Amino acid sequence: MAVTVPSDRRFRRSQSHTTRRRRLRGRPVWRVVRALVVLTVLAGGGYWLAQSAFDVGWLRVQHISVHGNQRVKTSEVLALIDGLRGDNLLTTDLEKWRARLFASAWIADATLRRRLPGTIDVEIRERLPVGIARVGTSLMLIDGSGTVIDEYGPRYADCDLPVVDGLVTDPSALPLKLDRSRSQLVMRLIGELRTRPDLSRRVSQVDVRDAHDVHVILDGDSAIIRLGDSQFVERLDSYVGLQAALRERVPDIDYVDLRFG
């Protein structure tokens, strides 16, 4: 008796599908490889083009233009940022170069700007000296914030400023450190005197060794004028108004105390 065994359809189906899957899988792999090759070529070309663009001469810093400086020489400014010339105009770190400029005590602020072709504009704002601090036998230029700018010498002979005593409590300490409260007192005095240039021009010396009592000496007058710590212009103006009459009565005056009216 013959027995017919049915063929295993699942087995045949499996063979058929396996062949088909191999064909289907083969095509996407080549497509992915080809796409990756194309992308790599494009990326490499783009990078090369970008590098070529960055390397063109007009994108290199070739010129540095300095503005706003009067006391600081242009050559000194350029020396502080030596190395900037030749950098890429677009990628150079301007903040890094700006920070280097503050090595000069004369420079209060600076702004650096990019300008095509290949130019960096450097705008300088210098400190404004308002007094000459006496420290032992040395004289130092100071600005409105009480910052020591430079040692006073012949190159600053055009600075007609009052000499200020008492700003440094420890002259032997280096670097020199101005007393904060006394500096603020001097700056308030100078700030008020700016409203009266006629009085400001007459102030020859200022002494703030007493942080609550400003002493002032005027040009052509040896008397010490004690102004306290407020109403500087009002009190100084009252003395100037009485100066001639006082000298007639008392030729030799050691000091005048105006703190109490």
Structural description of this entry:
The chain is of the alpha/beta class and 261 residues long. The protein has three domains: 26-55; 57-126, membrane protein fhac (Ubiquitin-like (UB roll), Roll), CATH 3.10.20.310; 129-257, Rossmann fold (3-Layer(aba) Sandwich). Helix content is 37%, strand content 22%. It contains six helices and eleven strands. The strands form two sheets. An eight-stranded mixed β-sheet has the order 6-5-4-7-8-9-10-11, with helices on one face. It is elongated. The protein starts with 8 loop residues before the first helix and ends with a strand. The mean pLDDT is 84.
Q: Any chance you could write out the topology, listing elements then pairs?
A:
Elements: H1 9-54, E1 63-67, H2 74-80, H3 94-101, E2 107-115, E3 119-126, E4 129-135, E5 138-143, E6 148-151, E7 163-165, H4 180-193, H5 197-200, E8 203-207, E9 215-218, E10 224-226, H6 232-249, E11 255-257
Parallel strand pairs: 1-3, 4-7, 7-8, 10-11
Antiparallel strand pairs: 2-3, 4-5, 5-6, 8-9, 9-10
Oligomer: single chain
Beta strand count:
11
The count of helical stretches stands at 6
Query: How do the strands of the widest beta sheet line up side by side?
Result: 6-5-4-7-8-9-10-11
Number of domains: 3
Q: Can you name the CATH architecture of the largest domain? A: 3-Layer(aba) Sandwich
| Helical coverage, percent range | 25-40%
What integer is the average pLDDT? Answer: 84
Return the string of H and E elements: HEHHEEEEEEHHEEEHE
- CATH domain fold name of the largest domain: Rossmann fold
> Under the CATH scheme, which class of the largest domain?
Alpha Beta
Strand content: 15-25%
Q: CATH-wise, what's the superfamily of the largest domain?
A: Cell division protein FtsQ/DivIB
